[in-house]
Amino acid sequence: MQPRPEIKGWCPGAFAPMPSGDGLLIRAKAIGARLTAAQAREIARIAKDCGNGLIDLSQRAQLQLRGISEATIVEALRRLETIGMLAPNADAERVANVIASPLTGLAPGAFDANALAAELAAALQRDATLRALQPKFLFLLDDGGALSLKGVEADIRIEAATKGEIALRVAGVADRAALVAEKDALDAALRLARAFIELRDRHANRFRRVRTLVEALGAQALAGAAGLELRGFARTHAPAQRAHIYGAQRCGTIAYAGVGAPFGRWRESELAAVADFAQGAGAGELRLTPWRALLIVTPEIEAARKIVAQAQDHDLITSADDERLAVVACPGAPECPQALAETRAHVMDLAPLAQKFVGADGVGLHLSGCAKGCARQSAAPITLTACVDGFDLIENGGADGAPHLRSLTFAAVMRELSARASGMPQ
Predict the structure, then answer these.
(1) Parent domain of 156
(2) Does a cis peptide bond (omega within 30 degrees of 0) precede residue 425?
(3) What is the pLDDT of residues 152-182, one digit of tens each?
(4) What is the β-pairing status of strands 365-368 and 380-387?
(5) CATH of the domain at 38
(6) Residue 252, exposed/middle/buried by CB under 10 A (0-12, 13-18, 19+)?
(7) What are the tens digits of pLDDT across the range 173-206?
(8) Phi-psi region for residue 109, left (φ > 0), alpha (ψ -120 to 50) or beta?
(9) Order of strands, sheet of 156-160, starting from the edge strand that comes earlier in the sequence
């Protein structure tokens, strides 16, 4: 039997640093999608001065600094506060978890998701009742404009609907929503969050997230407790496509350069370079995304193309066809104490093979250091989960799925995947 990984139930923060194999992991708290070039440059400097120079861009569109030490954390927090990326206190940091449409305010959308994110975060921080939300409880604001967040999981979603109305959705329900006037959206979302706390407490704290509550009690039980009614309302926006994320892109009256670091891991020099690109050829502004890419806003498409060329000189990802996008991997050992094997040492070998198996979202292989599957919660065509004797291979499942093959050495993994990719019989 494999050892069961410990489920923390919380994300690393500045006030709640997470111990890892390479030191403390902290998060530069962003509310909304906007990041200035000056903020990005200072985060790179903090990573260099106070950590090990590595920064992860998470699936929650947050920058996480690695290798912070007990001796440097006070300075790191002081400098994050100076650039406006430190929450007022631990309670505020824990509950204000909000993702906003990456291009909101730049491309046409039904509402300004960044402005609403700031209002929502402030309301969450003021309300003592809402401090009881689980630390991973996530709100999402999708303005209905470019780069839809349809494929991003969240507990409560605030989405553009018909003109003048907002759709409130809850996790696990794709075909129904509560429709409210735009001016009432924030209040309704907060009522849903309070209703979740009330029902969770009534059931002995059995439900950690909205999805599990909905599965047990039904979505209308939650909506009803919030004074809302769900009715049939299908999403009209398709998930963002990689072809529209990476490279030089034009969107309405603006343009942007989509740039990623392999497997979401940025070196401080790379983030500093991107900040310089944004300040030089761009508009001094970047946008954070849950797809582990940064969007560098530019006044015209030629400037975006210039930035893409500069990013390529740093071996960053600038094309949706980059084979490195076909692999999703967690940090693995020794960085993560839960991991049973290295992961990052193998990703470059796996990338060309992973590209042969890509699904609709462009991912062909998920490499996980343990059965938690932190890097990807949904199924992948091929998942490799580290075990005490090597890797288990799972087909069309997640890291905790039933293995098709067990305890493979990495050499055996490569042979198996090569054979599958070439169509050879097993």
Answers:
(1) 110-143+151-232
(2) no
(3) 999 999 999 987 899 999 999 999 999 999 9
(4) parallel
(5) 3.90.480.10
(6) exposed
(7) 999 999 999 999 999 999 999 999 999 999 998 8
(8) beta
(9) 98-100, 139-142, 156-160, 165-170, 176-181, 231-232
- Give the span between the Cα atoms of 48 and 71, in whole angstroms: 14
Q: In this structure, what token pair is assigned to residue 411?
A: 């050499």
CA distance 88 to 82: 12
Residue 315, CA distances (Å) to 186, 293, 367 in order: 42, 14, 22
- pLDDT tens digits for range 271-330: 999 999 999 999 999 999 999 999 999 999 999 999 999 999 999 999 999 999 999 999
Distance CA 332, CA 423 (A): 30
| Amino acid at the residue 47 | A
Q: What is the spatial order of strands in the sheet that 405-408 belongs to?
A: 327-329, 365-368, 380-387, 390-397, 405-408
Helix-helix angle 210-217:185-202, to 10 degrees: 70
- Asked whether the whole model's pTM tops 0.90, one would answer yes
CB 14, CB 87: distance < 8 Å? yes
The burial class, CB within 10 Å (0-12 / 13-18 / 19+), for 425 is exposed
Same domain? For 58 and 86 the reply is: yes
3-state secondary structure 10-61: CCCCCCCCEEECCEEEEEECCCCCEEEHHHHHHHHHHHHHHCCCEEEECCCC
Tokens 């111990």 belong to: 19
CA dist 277 to 105, 250, 308, 408, Å? 21, 17, 9, 44
Q: For residue 80, give the amino acid letter.
A: L
Residue 414 lies in a domain: yes
Per-chain mean pLDDT for the chain = 93
User: Phi-psi bin for 147: left (phi > 0), alpha (psi -120 to 50), beta?
Assistant: left
pLDDT digits (tens, 9 = 90+) for 336-350: 888 999 998 999 999
Residue 102 lies in a domain: no
Distance of CA 349 to the CA centre of its chain: 24
155 and 41 belong to one structural domain: no
At residue 23, φ and ψ (nearest 5 deg) are: 115, -160
